[in-house]
Amino acid sequence: MLALLLLSIIISSSATSGLSAIKSTIPIMNQQHHHQRDAAAYQDFVSSAVDFSGCYVRNGFVTATRSVRDIDTNSRRSFVYNIPLISPSLAAPPMELSAKIKARIPSPSGDKLAVLVEESVPSDIEGKGQGTKRHVMEIWTNKGHQLAKRIVLPSTIHGPVCTDFAWFGGISWSPDETALVYSAEVNKPKTASYFAVSSKEDDKEDDETIVGGQYTLGVGKKEDWGEKYGTTALLALFCLNVSTGKIGAVENVPACTNTASQTTDGNHVLGQPIFSPCGQAVVYTGWDAGGGGEMPRRLGAIYCYHRPCQIYSSPVSQLLKTLEIDTTEDEDETVADDNFVCITPNDRLSRSPRFSSPSDGVAKLAYLSHTKGFDTHNGCMALHTSDWCMSKGSVVDGSKKVVVDVVTLPGERGDGETISGLKFPGLFLNQLSDRCFSPDGKFILTSSQWGSVVRVVSISLDDGSVTPLKFDMRDGDNRNDAEPSQQFLCFTDDGGAIVTQSECNYPTMLGSLPSSFLTDAKGGISSQVLAELPSAATSSFSPSSAGSGFKAGSGYSYKIMKILPEHGDVKVDVSSILLLPDDAGNEKLPLIVVPHGGPHSATPTSFVPSYGYLCQHGKYAVLHVNFRGSTGFGQAALESLAGNAGTQDVLDVVAATRAAIDTGAIDPERVGICGGSHGGFLAAHLSGQHPDLFKVASMRNPCINIASMVTATDIPDWCYVETLGIGKYEWDNFRAPSKEENDKMWDNSPIAHLENVKAPTLVALGMKDRRVPPSQGLEYFHSLRAKSLPTKLLVYEDCDHAIDRVVSEADFWINTKQWFDQHL
């Protein structure tokens, strides 16, 4: 009572100033509470994410590395899990992996482990300033328990080792475990200023120094491979003897300037190297970097799986003998290895070479291929094999076999098996797993996009039959309509398999299949969960108000929806994934439509924390639309988008949205659109072409004006192919578009529909984006602001196209949720 009396006195004595102060404080307090709840909920979801990499099985243990976001330090931390296959419950706690460790490569037997370390060189070593980076290869023996040797990889021989194992990079052991082969950057030639004064001692070096070349492209400045590859220009192959520590360049390769002294232009970029099972050769992928006639300008590589490449073999027996000798004497008298051989001379695209274990003097070489290639950034791949003669160390002439060919339309081949009602659409994958052959060499296991899911498939090398494996790590939950996405990682020593499983509302689980799974492939396969990892705290942020309390498998559900649009020439279902919060009751939900980027990619039924955050915490229905042009639906459906971007994909998204509304769960007056890259392109298109349907928009690095982007992006081919059609980009020529081409690019751009836009729009830009220049989003933002539309611009100075730095990613998704809260 006393407190109430005092409060009444205070209010009455300052009726004007005091009361207004209290009123103004309440909204601020509510707003702070709201921000804290959003941040706590986002943290809850990203802490639950399980991102695995570097998985292998050795000595009865499965080793996997988990990447965890750390908001406090704006970085990702890595943790290594070693799980015993026999008793996974007895696994030791994870160990944090130092950021200095760039790669861990176990030897075939498991007795050795190669660890690539990046470290700073102290100022008193090598006469270099403090902070200079160098790579060191550590060799651990005794099943990885003993550090036996540290080998500094001299910067005089090559630049940084390429650790991009998803594309260019690769480190491989020789079969006898005496050597490693790896891909590394070719050094730039030495350059000097016109005004530099050299001493007499430098005369010999001056003979190789290019005066005035510091700023010349191809000399002091490297021509790189665009977005995410700003430090990758020219890669060569090198062998390292793990006993002597000697390193040698593989020089019998397709015109790569391994010992470049005058230029870094080169003809080919060499990567994905592996030793042949006989140890006499290395087999690798070579990308056209100007020597093949289709790369007058190096184009962006990341997410661009159509850059011309072939598979080569180079004998290395003599090189390896040289590296075995722990002296430099008589090296000039060594015999050179034979010249390289192109294994796939008639294929425009070939990559990801993998070997089986040998049998009767022959091993199988498998690789992904597309003989004609394709103009789109992704496409259906074929699986080819060739026989490898162990005694000769080369491919057997005439042994090439097309095991699984490119599929134009689903159901064209295969045994009629369906996933979500879709027959086999072809192989859609970027790489084969390192150990993809079954122990008997009769099957290859891989993961492939199959409609809106990713599934593990078994491929018979005898008849080419493709069988999706049927297992469910959550089969005890009585789920008849589950559509999980699953990945094959590697085989176990006894012929079993290590796999993962994820769903829109369930983070990734690590599991195993028994050694009998290949014989049971046609029926249901039992599976064992090896690890269902708990959440890992992403920051020290701990507000008094808790988040949504994410619990795997609850809080929201998902289902796959399909429609067959009337428009378009290729009649294939448009598949969508609809996420719905559990506690909606009879209330109709606001909907956020999310078309994916690419455009030639797909959204599978995997756990993505940001969308779970929007659905469960934000109480939004979320619709992922895999429009025609997506991977996993056959090559014809994918290529049907070329020349029709901004029309066919727009109509597909509209049709999918209306189908979601027709379920009765969605409020048709509260529909928003959210997307990045091509998804941002579609978000801008949809808010302009269908302003009465899409009421609010959020977009990341959107393509807005193709005509002004075409000569500034690292993928000008996208601008031509997606607006003008297949065959319209001149691969052997780089030029600006004609006036007619420019007009067509403008017509296919969102900027052409600017006057119709009514939606409040959030624009996020990564200012280091080389794929879609930030000027695109700035053009759109300023144009909308000039129309007096509610518009907000997020500027991330240190981010590129993906906006995937930990803090920036978090900031964007919380801003997006609050933008829809405010306007939808």
Description:
The chain is α+β, with helices and mostly antiparallel strands. The chain has 13 helices and 40 strands. An 8-stranded mixed sheet has the order 33-34-36-35-37-38-39-40, sandwiched between helices. Strands 19, 20, 21, 22 and 23 form a 5-stranded antiparallel sheet that branches. A 4-stranded antiparallel sheet has the order 1-2-3-4, with no helix packed on it. Helix 2 crosses helix 5 (609-617) and helix 2 packs across helix 13 (806-823). It is globular, with a radius of gyration of 28 Å.
In short:
The protein is an alpha+beta fold and 824 residues long. Helices cover 18% and strands 30% of the residues.
Give me the count of strands: 40
* Shape designation: globular
Main sheet, how many strands, which sense, barrel? 8 strands, mixed
- Amino-to-carboxy terminus distance: 43 Å
Task: Report the C-alpha radius of gyration, rounded.
Answer: 28 Å
How many DSSP helices?
Answer: 13
The level of helicity is 10-25%
Uncertain stretches of 5 or more adjacent residues: 1-25
Spatial order of the strands in the main sheet? 33-34-36-35-37-38-39-40
Multimer state: single chain
Structural class: alpha+beta
Q: Summarize model confidence as the mean pLDDT.
A: 90
What fraction strand?
25-35%
